[in-house]
Fold:
Amino acid sequence: MLHFWTANRRTFQPPFTVGFQPIQTLGLSLLIVRKKHFALLLALPFLMAYSSGSQALAGEVVFSDDFESGVLAERWEGINSTRPEGLGFETRAEYVHSGKRSLRLTAHENGGNASVAQVTRWFMPGYDRLYFRWYAMFAVDFDQGNLMHWTFIGGSRTDNKWSAFGTAGLRPGGADFFTTMLEPWRNWGEYPPPGALHFYTNYPDMTQAPDGNYWGNHFDPQKPFLPDRGRWYCFEVMVKLNTPGSRDGEQAFWIDGEKILHADSIRWRDSEVLKLNAFWFGVYIHKAVRDNTCWYDDLIISTDYIGPENGERQGDGK
Ligand SMILES: [Ca+2]
Structure:
């Protein structure tokens, strides 16, 4: 059995482990998105903020979407799926978290080749710390096999929104990009689908893989969190960029208001030219032998902790 590789280059003892997984096809997908939607992206507004419902929030809302109105292209860019029916609004009540609609992403069966459904949002020039809160549910029959990608947070240059895209397998240089993804990880069959949630992260101090590439390093909580299929969860991710010249960056995630992982002492960048400025919902399956669906609802991106809608089991957000 293959196991991910534990890095030992870190100078502190974090409550998580770091490793890599060999993902070689994501960059191709990103390049396709880039070319296909470039004209559309240029036509969209610079920044749009939306109602975050009745929830009282401490921070500035950078973007929100409850998927209740309009069409996807009004608020999202990089709308991309292997089959046209692979994404859209869901109206069946059992697959809607709030109101009458949610977002459905299906990575369709593709003969064992890669399959994707995704929507992307930029917020240029960007921020130094953001919280990303959303609700999501994996289909009751979700089974990605081994490798997949899920939710992406990226940092591009403030003068080039594309610099974090098409970067799979590369080590960031400090002034070009960084990326982190919250995603389920099966650890080659150790965990039942969809798997244990962790970060898959490309940052300047990351560890090189034996094949010479820089596949995302894993940030795994010591106690794995295994979401059930067919159930809504509240997910929240925080990324705090470091001060250039210091290793004081962080990343953390919560599920249903409970903090699962908080990593610190991260160097994301060496220059202020990199900011947090890209996010996507995506289901990317590396070897798609069946259809795999996720539903999403009630996304809020804010400068401060958000927490679950009902206010129960609120984490400290720090
Ligand atoms: Ca909704």
Remarks:
- The pocket of calcium ion is lined by residues 66-68, 96, 98-99, 101-102, 297 (CB under 6 Å).
- The longest helix spans residues 26-36.
- The longest strand covers residues 115-127.
